[in-house]
Amino acid sequence: MRLLLCLLLWSMLTLGCGSGTANQSTAPESPVVDPTQSLSSILNSAIADGVDGILVYVDKAGHEPIIATAGHHERGSQQSIAADALFKVASISKLFIAVAVTKLAHENSLSLDDSLALWLPEYTNAIQFSESITIRQMLQHRSGIPDFDSQPGFSWENAHTDLDATLAFALHKPADFSPNSRYEYSNTNYLLLGKLMDRVLGFSHQDYIQQRILAPLQMHNTYLVHESELADRLVSGYWLGINRENQDYRIPGGSMISTVEDIGIFIRALNNGTLLNNTEKSLYPYWFEHSGWLPGYQSNAAYQAANNTVVVQFVSTTGGSSETVASRTYQSLVSYAAGL
After folding, report:
1. What residues have CB less than 8 Å from 6, skipping those under 6 apart?
2. Which of 139, 120, 69 is nearest to 333 (CA)?
3. What are the residues whose beta carbons fall under 8 Å from the beta carbon of 217, sequence distance 6 or more?
4. Are the C-beta atoms of 263 and 92 separated by less than 8 Å?
5. Is residue 259 within 8 Å of residue 222, measured between CB atoms?
6. Which end of the chain is more exposed for a tag (fewer CB within 10 A), N or C?
7. How many CB atoms are closer than 10 A to CB 339?
8. How remote is the C-alpha of 42 from its chain's centroid?
9. pLDDT of 267-287, one tens digit each?
10. What is the pLDDT of residues 71-97, one digit of tens each?
C-alpha cells in the first residue's frame, strides 16, 4: 500500500506574484539542507514562504513510493490538494516527444539525421537553414530556430491553442545561430517536432504517445492536452495573483496534464530501461529529467542515480519568489530522500 501523506493547511496565505520566465527558474545559492528534516516540515515551509500548493512524489528503491501534498486546491477554499490531482506539467512534456521520436527512429520511420525540410518542406523559406537542420538538433535545442516565446507580440498572459498562430511568431526570422554550433533552448523545436511526427505517422503524434508510452506504463492519469472534463481535478495555478487554470496551452512540448505519481512512474521507466530498450537508449539524444513552467505551474522531475530515487515536485505558483522557493524545496526533498 502506498504511503499517502496529505498535509492539510487550514490557514490561507496571500502571495503577490511577479513575472516569470518560461521553463527557467533562478536557483539560489546551495542552501544548508538538514537531511533529518521531515517531509511535512519541508512542504509546510514552502507554503509558509508563499506558494499556494505543492505536490511531491518520492520513489526510492526498497521503499514504498510516497505522495505528499500541502496547500489548497484553490485559493479561498478549504479543499486540500488530492494525491491524484492533475497539474500542467509544461515542458516535462518534451521528454515524451523525445521518447516518441526515438521510437520512430528505431522503427525506421525516420532518421534523427533527416532534415527539417525533408518532412516539413512548406517551411523551407520560412525557417533559415531548414535544409540542414536535423531532427537530432531540434531535439537537442541545437537548431538555431528562434524561440517563439521571446518574439515581439508573444505574451504568456494569453492562451496559446493554435499551433500555426504560435509558430508564426518564429517564422521568417534570422536564425539565432548556425545549426549545431551551440545550444539554446527553443520551444519552437518541439512545436515543429509535433508537426513532423504527425506527417511521418499520418495521424496525431498524441495518439502515438498514448499507444507507445502512456498505455504500456499504465499512466491512466496523464493527458496530452487539457480538456474541460478534467477541470475539477486540475489544481488552480496562480501567476501575477491571477488563477491561470483556464489559460489553455496546447503547444506540443508543453501541453500535457498529469499527476505527480504518473510523472514519477515515467521518469523511473525512462531511466531504468523499462521505456527504452538498449537500441532505443543508444539512439535517445535528449535528457532523462526535465523541469517545466507555465503561468501558475512549475514542475521538476529527476532521477537521483546515487541512491536510485525519483523525486517529482509540482508547485502551483509562479512569479515573485516562488521559483526560488521551489528550487530550495526541491533540494530539501532530494536530501530527505537520500536519508530514507
Report:
1. 68, 69, 80, 81, 82, 83
2. 69
3. 265, 266, 269, 274, 275
4. yes
5. yes
6. N
7. 13
8. 22
9. 999 999 999 999 999 999 999
10. 999 998 989 999 999 999 999 999 999
User: Helix (H, G, I), strand (E, B), or coil: what is residue 288?
Assistant: coil
Q: pTM here? A: 0.90
Q: Which residue has the cell 477541470?
A: 231
Is residue 37 very low, low, confident or very high in pLDDT (cuts 50, 70, 90)?
confident
Per-residue cell: 181: 554550433
Question: May I ask the CATH architecture of the domain 3-90+208-338?
Answer: 3-Layer(aba) Sandwich (3.40)
The answer to whether residues 294 and 244 touch, using CB atoms and an 8 Å cutoff, is: yes
Enumerate residues 6+ apart whose C-beta is below 8 A from 79.
Answer: 72, 73
Q: Angle at CA 25, nearest 5°, toward 180 and 42?
A: 135
- For the record, the C-alpha cell of 102 comes out as 526515438
| Element housing 336 (H / E) | helix 322-338
pLDDT reported for residue 34: 55
The three-state secondary structure class of 182 is coil
| Phi, psi torsion values for 228, nearest 5 degrees | -60, -30
Task: For residues 93-112, give the mean pLDDT.
Answer: 98
What's the residue count for the chain? 340
Whether pLDDT at 7 is above 70: no
- The C-alpha cell that represents 148 in the structure block: 517563439
Q: How far is CA 112 from CA 203, 250, 251, 270, in A?
A: 20, 25, 22, 19
Best CATH choice for the domain 94-204 from the list 3.40.710.10, 3.40.1790.10, 1.20.1540.10, 3.40.47.10? 3.40.710.10
Query: What letter would DSSP give residue 66?
Result: E
Q: Return the DSSP state at 78.
A: -
3-state secondary structure 290-316: EEEEECCEEEEEEEEHHHCEEEEEEEC
112-116 contacts at long range (C-beta below 8 A, 24 or more positions apart): 112/136, 112/139, 112/283, 112/285, 116/143, 116/192, 116/196
